[in-house]
Amino acid sequence: MNGPLLSVRGLTVRYGAIEALHGIDLDVPEGRIVTLIGSNGAGKTTTLRTISGLLRASAGSVAFAGEEIGELAPHEIVKRGVVQAPEGRGIFPNMSVDENLALGAFTRSDSAGIAADRERSLALFPRLRERLSQSAGTLSGGEQQMLAIARALLARPRLLLLDEPSLGLAPQVVATIFRIVREINAAGTTILLVEQNARMALSVSHVGCVLEVGRIVLRDEASALAKSDSVRRAYLGGE
Amino acid sequence: MEARPGPSAAVTALRGVLPFLVGAFASLLLHFVVAPASGPFATKLVMDAGINVILAVSLNLVNGFTGQFSIGHAGFMAVGGYTAGLVTYYGSMLLWGSPAAHGGFLGGGELLFLAACLAGAAVAALAGLLVGLPSLRLRGDYLAIVTLGFGEILRVLLQRTGDVLPTAAEVRRTPLPELATHVGGALGFTGIPFYTSPFWVGIFVTVMLVVAYRLKSGSHGRSFLAIREDEVAAEAMGIPTTRVKVTAFVLSALFAGLAGGLFAHLVGTTLNPRELGFQKSFDVVIMVVLGGMGSISGAAIAAVILTLLPELLRSFSEYRMILYAALLVVVMIVRPQGLLGLGEIWDVWRPRRKGTGR
User: Fold this and answer.
1) What sign does the dihedral A158-A161-A166-A168 (CA atoms) show?
2) Which of B121, B133, B143, B147 could serve as B258's disulfide partner, Cβ 3.0–4.6 Å?
3) CB contact (8 A) between residue B237 and residue A94
4) What are the phi and psi torsion angles at A95 (to 5°)?
5) What is the span of the domain harbouring residue B113?
6) Hey, is the C-beta of B139 within 8 angstroms of any chain A C-beta?
7) Do B355 and A138 touch (CB under 8 A)?
8) pLDDT tens for residues B42-101?
């Protein structure tokens, strides 16, 4: 395929009178991990939620695999292969881990394929296998995050949207999750990752973009960004 | 979920029909053995309880499973009841010249009654679609406001209808669509034949319980519950939330209409706008909240208790609403999830799976 898998042009989003995104351009090439870093309130989550259809853009376009998806309902977007693991995990706390996983495959009806993907997800997150019948609300924070990602994988995404997977987790757990994110990508899933933990995000990504108050101000190879002075100063706590 | 040999087709088919067979058998037993032995008063109570079970379990599809808040259930009951009453009363007039019950068990009259109940359910479902479609696109309390308004508008409209036509000759003279405006006004729709029997109540309760249980244990029900748990996450998983909410609402209205049909043809009740007002809607909400939002058996048990309780406390009947309100407050403090929460009564005996009902 020529052209990026996801192509966002001039994306503008408003909350009432306040404009949160001022015309963002973003490309996610197939097979890569692209990360969007930025501080609180820069518009990272807004960007993801607009791509997945949970928010409506006031202007601009979102094209996935060459098709305009900006006007589609969220469930239509999921069917096309763009799946979000929501921020704050968004798991169903009173349901078992197994039921949560089953809901991930809601849009699919190929039971053999679902069973295979379920196995694949559980192989990535062995911790979840031990807790299949436990209610999801009783999992630890890290396990809930794992569940959110595993559940999203059951929708068989071509593009996986990850919203702050490191939020509120211990460094050890964050490292595990990012290792698995790489594995998911290596198995062929394109990933758009939104993170405050810039160091971790840039270390696993191919391309990085820096979002500042609703605008993308920098875009480069992730390794180059990690070395750039301004990024080091603003986001990596470097001297 | 590991690959295990599936049951044979015959076993699956039997398992599908079995609940209905058991329900039909129990209904027949109730009708021909239990009811005659226990007298008309107890029989009437059993039928009241059955109708309330249908109302509570159907409202639970919306207020319990899907986590929305409807407080106009009596409105859909009224739509179903008046529609069914129209069919049997005026249908009997046209067919047999008199509104009196016609034929015996499963005779012509009862078949007309069955058709009337189904028609009532269908019209109630349509009303559910009209009310649900605009209000369920939004999140939050809009549904409560709209359903409340719907019930009140319906009550006022029904109060302004004309008298019931008493003779077959008059009925024959009146064009069919106009008959729908002769449902008795504020005095109520009197003269509807009494077809509702323990058998029919038993059958419809069975259908309601089986449908609710299949829903809850299947993937459709899981999508209902997902919306209740976290609507945004449900949307992100690809669940078409508006469509699912409207489906739950229409199904709920359909069964309320069915209950209305049974209510309309019950001995000792008159179908009048007052009876099916806000008070009735609120009674059903209390049953669902008491029994446990999302628990089928909980709603059913609460419905039975709240049918029998006023009878036991007849002498305090003026204080009924005070008692209910107090009961509700106590439950909210002691057990905010209701008697059974999301779980079912049989989970209490089984080693509890942690996934359900905290």
Assistant:
1) negative
2) B121
3) no
4) -105, 160
5) 17-276
6) no
7) no
8) 999 999 999 999 999 999 999 999 999 999 999 999 999 999 999 999 999 999 988 888
Instruction: Kindly list the residues from chain A whose CB atom is less than 8 angstroms away from the CB atom of residue B232.
Output: 54, 86, 90
Q: Six-digit token pair at B219?
A: 């993937």
Contact A99 B355 (CB under 8 A): yes
Residue whose structure tokens are 């009532």: B120
Nearest by CB to residue B354, choosing from A106, A138, A155, is A138
B107-120 pLDDT tens trace? 889 999 999 999 99
Tokens at B55, concatenated: 């109302």
- Residue A162 has phi, psi (to 5 degrees) of -110, 120
Asked if residue B105 belongs to a domain, the reply is yes
Judge whether B344 lies within some domain. Answer: no
Domain of B227, CATH number, reads: 1.10.3470
| Token pair recorded at residue B334 | 């002691």
Structural domain tally of chain B? 1
Residue that is written with structure tokens 């395929």 in the block:
A1
B281 in a domain, yes or no? no
* pLDDT tens per residue across span B178-233: 999 999 999 999 999 999 999 999 999 999 999 999 998 888 889 999 999 999 99
Q: Is B312 domain-assigned?
A: no
Q: Which residues, at least 6 apart from B14, have a Cβ–Cβ distance to it below 8 Å?
A: none
* Structure tokens belonging to residue B290: 């008491």
| Interface predicted TM-score (ipTM) of this complex, two decimals | 0.88
Q: How far is A217 from B264, CA to CA, in rounded Å?
A: 69
